[in-house]
Amino acid sequence: MYEENENKIDWMSILKKLGIIVGAIVIVLLIVTGISNCTKKDSGKPDNKKPVDLTSQLDQLESATLAYLTKDNLPIEMNASKTIRLKILINKNLVSEIKDSENNRCDINESYAEITRLENNYAVKISLSCGQNKDYRVIYVGCFEECNGGICEGTENSTNGICTVTPVEPEPNPGTDTEPTTPPTTTKPNTTTTTTKKPGTTTKKPTTTKKPTTTTSKVVWYEFEKCTTKPAYCPVGSPKNGRCERLVPYTEYGTVAYEKDTTTSKPVPASKVLVSTKTVYYARTSEIPKSTDLVKYDYKGIYSNENASKPHKVVVTTYKYQCSQGNPSLDGKTCYVTTSVPGKPYCIDPRFTYSNGSCTRMNYKTEYSEMVPAKKTCQTTWSKSTYLAGWTRTGRTK
Asked: Which residue has the higher pLDDT, 55 or 208?
């Protein structure tokens, strides 16, 4: 009986252990699945690619543009622009097909060079569009002295770079408006037919004359322009960063302070003031007190007989010392008057100067104003010549 109890299996304990193991496996699987999903999501994100460098490709387009440009294909009017697309340069065999480092073909229509005439030179915007990759640069070209009669690259501040138009048909005396010589007139000779009749008949001489034929070629007049520009200027002040700057003086005020007041005590004699006057009778002169500073005894009647029935008449005058200002001394004869002298004013900031109750100094503030804009004035003239020294052809004809 005891052996049967010892061999009995505890299924509840086994099931609990199995449940714990299964739960742990499920949790581990969930964690692994989550990590793998995150890894897949991260791997699906596109990499942050660095932008493609189109420097060498822009160099190719720039070189082809400079090779293409001549004095005759530059824009003539101020701020006028002219666009040269990549397909034109390819057709002229100035450059081959351009591709970026990712083998994207640069668009032959969207890739171009845009030339704009400025006051002193020409700005050329070199632009490339190769798939999603785009870039551009701006250079400045012109007919500068160092170009040796051609077109070369300069800087934004380069001057004297405007090209003169090459004459189409150079004339012996350029710049003159002499009318062209009229071609010679072709005139046929007169044809006269004479018919001789028999005697007695009238002789008739018919004459036929043709009008001379004149061939006149059409004269083309060219418009020329000469412009002068008065630069922007400042009526007041000096130019700085596109504006007029000037320093304006003004008075700046500081803080006034005072030194400590000084107190002095000055002694002043007290005033002697009458208090009262009264008459006193004394039987004997020995009884009369002696006069003092404040009490004075004046005898009005003194009898020689000390035992006389009539007493001695004495007028007693009483005085006191009084201070109209200040404090009296112990004996009352002196008054001490206290005088307070205000401290001297001064400026807390030593850069200021004290005067008439204020601390001041001269300072300057900056004021800005707009510049008077540049003014361009142009004059035009017409000529049958294709070139006038000092003038620029506008492109208009009549």
From this structure: 55
Confidence at residue 171, expressed as pLDDT on a 0 to 100 scale: 45
| Three-class DSSP category at 138 | strand
Question: What is the sign of the dihedral through the CA atoms of 382, 385, 390 and 392?
Answer: positive
Q: What are phi and psi of 309, to 5 degrees?
A: -75, -25
Phi-psi region of 237 (alpha: psi -120 to 50; beta: other; left: phi over 0): left
Decide: 82 and 73 in contact? Cβ < 8 Å: yes
pLDDT of residue 219: 84
CB 312, CB 299: distance < 8 Å: yes
Cα–Cα distance, 389 to 172 (Å, whole number): 14
- Which residue in 168, 73, 177 sits closest to 122, CA to CA? 73
Locate all alpha helices (DSSP H) within the chain, ordered by sequence. 2-6, 11-44, 55-68, 86-91
Closest C-alpha to 132, from 248, 51, 189, 186: 51
117 neighbors 80 (Cβ within 8 angstroms) = yes
> What is the average per-residue pLDDT within 55-64?
93
User: pLDDT tens digit string along 335-353?
Assistant: 998 888 888 999 999 999 9
Whole-angstrom distance, CA of residue 256 vs CA of residue 343: 12
CA distances from 40 to 37, 49, 139 (A): 5, 19, 48
CA distances from 100 to 20, 51, 52, 373 (A): 62, 11, 8, 44
Asked if residue 334 lies in contact with residue 326, where contact means CB atoms within 8 angstroms, the answer is: no
**Which residues touch 208 (CB under 8 Å, ≥6 apart)?**
190, 191
